[in-house]
Amino acid sequence: MHRVRGAVLAMVLGGCGHSEPFGPQASRPEEPFSDAVPVRLTYASGLNTRPAFSEDGRSFVYAFPRPDDLPTDEDHDTCLGALPATGGARRFELCVHAADHRRFRDGIEHGALSADGRLAFVQASGLAGNFTVLRAGLFVAPADSVRGARQVLELRRNPPGGGPIWDYLLDPTWVAPGELIALAARMELRGPNQSKDTLFFGHTVVRIRVDDDPLTWTTVATGMNAGELALDRSTGTIYLLSHRYFDDVNLTVIADTVWQVPLAGGTPVPYFGLPNASSAPVERLFAITAGGGRVLGTRGRVLGGAAVFDVVTLTADAPPASLPLTLPGNPGRLALSPDARVLVAEVFGPGGITLYRSEVP
C-alpha cells in the first residue's frame, strides 16, 4: 500500500489489503463508452490505477477505489475490475468482503488476464490508516467466475525452495498457459518520520508455474531494484525501470534507468537512461510500457520552474521523443496494447486519477 506522493509527480504505487474472505460484487455499467478523443474510460472518482492489457489486447484490468468506502474511512480499499479496450461496462469487479474490512486497508491489484481466460492478481492487507503491508498473496481465478479465486502463493516470506524474501509481486504477466512472470520485490519503509512511504524494490524477475502442486518457479534475471516490469511479447523482451536514490530519507532520485533482458533469461543490460537530478533540465522517468517493438514511458521535466509531463518513445542511444497525445492532464502509469496501437494511461486531475485511451501515433 502506498501513499500518493510527489511535488514532481504523484505516482500511486500500490494498495494494501486484508487477505480473506473476498468475492465479487455485482458488476454495474457505471462506466459508459465515450467516443471522445482521447476516450475517457473510467468515471468513478478517486484513484483508478495500474491498467494492464490482456494477452489478446481486447480488454484490460485496473485497480479502483471500493465503491462503498466513505471519505471519512481510513481503510481506502482497492478493488480490481476489467473493461473492454474500447470502454464500456466493467466485465467483472473484485473487492474484499469481510465483516471487519474497515479495520484493514485491503487491496486487490496487479491484475493479469491470460489468453485462456484466467485472472492472476495480488491481494494484500494492512491496518487501516497504516501504509505497511502485513499479509499478501498471489491468487488465480477463472476470469468468468472470480469467486473461484484461490491463493497459489503466500507472500511476505521466502519463496518455495528458498531465496530472498518475496514481500510482493509487481506486474505479474502471463507468458504461457499456467505460467507468468513477475518482479519479486522486498518492501522497505522509507522517508521522513512524518511522511514515510512503503516502497518496493524488485530483486528478481521470476517465472512462476501456478498449476504445479506445489507451485514451482525459476529465476529469469536479477531485478535491478526495479519498481516496474514491462514485457514486449512481439520481441520476447522484458524491460525494467529502476530508480537510484541519492537521499534515502527524502527519497531524492538522481537517476532513472531502463534495463532489458530476454524473456528466456539472462543478465539485464541498460537500454535507456535519463540524466541525473543535477542536470538541466531536470528529467525523471516515472513509468514504462512495451509492445509491438516499441517502448514508451512517462517523462517529467522541470522547465522554467514549472513541471511538465508527457508520454515519450524510448529508444536506445537516442533522446526521448514526445508523442503528440492530447491527454487532459499529467500522465502516470501506462499500458500499451500488444500490437502497440492503443495506449491506456493514468491521467491526474482534481478528482483523482482517471484512465484514458488513445490511439498511438
Give a description of the structure.
The protein is mainly β. It has strands at 22-24, 39-40, 46-47, 49-53, 59-65, 78-84, 92-96, 104-113, 118-127, 135-142, 150-154, 168-176, 179-190, 197-209, 216-232, 237-247, 252-262, 269-273, 282-291, 294-303, 306-313, 321-322, 330-336, 342-349, 352-359. The chain has no helices and 25 strands.
Quick take:
The chain has 361 residues and is an all-beta fold.
- Using the alpha-carbon principal axes, give the shape: globular
Sequence of secondary-structure elements: EEEEEEEEEEEEEEEEEEEEEEEEE
Distance between the termini: 34 Å
What is the spatial order of strands in the main beta sheet? 12-13-14-15-16-17-18
Strand segment tally: 25
Q: What does the average pLDDT come to?
A: 83
Give the helix tally: 0
